[in-house]
Amino acid sequence: MDAPLAGCDYPRTLREFNARFRDEEAALDYLAGLRWPGGFACPACAETRCWRMSKGRNLRCAGCRLDASVTAGTIFADTRLPLTTWFQAAWYATGTKHGVSALSLQRVLGVGSYETAWALLHKLRRAMVRPDRDRLAGEVEADETYVGGVATGKRGRGAAKKAIVEVAVEKRGVGMGRARLACIPDLSAESLLAAIEAAVEPGAVVYTDHFRGYAGLTAAGYIHYPTAISSSGDPAHVVMPRAHRIASLLKRWLLGTHQGAVRPQHLDDYLAEFAFRFNRRSSNHRGRLFYRLLEQAVHLEHVPVSAITSSRS
Ligand SMILES: [Zn+2]
């Protein structure tokens, strides 16, 4: 295993996918290429030559003989599922326009239980959130929406039975740029500001409605344009068409692909998947999403050497 992946290397079609990832070794080599994009470098001695062990998921350093695990510290660790099953799940999760439900995935992969398929998707969603750390910039529409339950009347009423999602989306001419979505606990100024600050770069132009919860945006460094929405219930899509559009796409996706079967405590993960897909909607190759997802899945932050090495057997 001394030929790292060259650049952005991914299968274009299901046929290519199937031909390429026939076995565990092929999948492991692919992950190793993503984990060490510049080629293997031993975490202990910086040696660049290594070989793949015939069992397990380790590379052995040709210099000091240390075994470095390819999957330790990633979503692929501590699972008995074959990597090929993970890869198939990632392929289906990224390869369809609306993603896949756990029930569909269970059928397609032939995994034993719904719970296994659900856990697979859940972990893949966790990996989807990572690239979206870059905050939105330029001109941004921000608004909150309710997920679950039945919307009735004005803001706040009946909110206790619903999750509140803050939506922020960039204006790009008449179209949309990137979007960020996050659950917020309530409509307090603190919660709204925290959500905006997590999603939008200071200095950006932020359009909201006249809700008083947004009053602190200017002091927080944003160029804030509150827009009046008439008290008679003038719909939000008139003044913030993009945020409204994202909210309706989100709700349609939750009801369609997932048939509304989303628990509030998992909503953040679904929001991550929605944003991952939405923000890459112009990608010509589905395979590129597969590549990005696996790349993020093996990306590690602040993992000590001891966590990616394993004892020799
Ligand atoms: Zn070494």
Distinct ligands? zinc ion
Strand coverage percent: 15-25%
Order of helices and strands: HHEEEHHHEEEHEEHHHHH
* Structure summary, number of beta strands: 8
Describe this structure in words.
This protein is of the alpha/beta class and 313 residues long. The protein has 2 domains: 14-83 and 286-308, no CATH class; 134-278, Ribonuclease H-like superfamily/Ribonuclease H (Nucleotidyltransferase, domain 5), CATH 3.30.420. Helices cover 37% and strands 16% of the residues. The chain contains 11 helices and 8 strands. The protein has helices at residues 14-20, 24-35, 83-95, 102-109, 114-128, 189-199, 236-239, 241-256, 267-278, 286-298, 305-308, and strands spanning 50-52, 58-61, 67-69, 139-147, 163-172, 175-184, 205-209, 223-227. Strands 6-5-4-7-8 form a 5-stranded mixed β-sheet, sandwiched between helices. A 3-stranded antiparallel β-sheet has the order 1-2-3, with no helix packed on it. Helix 3 (83-95) crosses helix 5, helix 4 (102-109) packs across helix 5 (114-128) and helix 5 (114-128) crosses helix 9. Mean pLDDT is 83; it is low at 1-6, 150-154 and 307-313. Bound molecules: zinc ion. Zinc ion binds next to loops. Residues 42, 44-45, 47, 61, 63-64, 66 line the site of zinc ion.
Characteristics:
binds zinc ion; three-stranded antiparallel sheet; Nucleotidyltransferase, domain 5; alpha/beta; 8 strands
Outline the fold blueprint.
Elements: H1 14-20, H2 24-35, E1 50-52, E2 58-61, E3 67-69, H3 83-95, H4 102-109, H5 114-128, E4 139-147, E5 163-172, E6 175-184, H6 189-199, E7 205-209, E8 223-227, H7 236-239, H8 241-256, H9 267-278, H10 286-298, H11 305-308
Parallel strand pairs: 4-7, 7-8
Antiparallel strand pairs: 1-2, 2-3, 4-5, 5-6
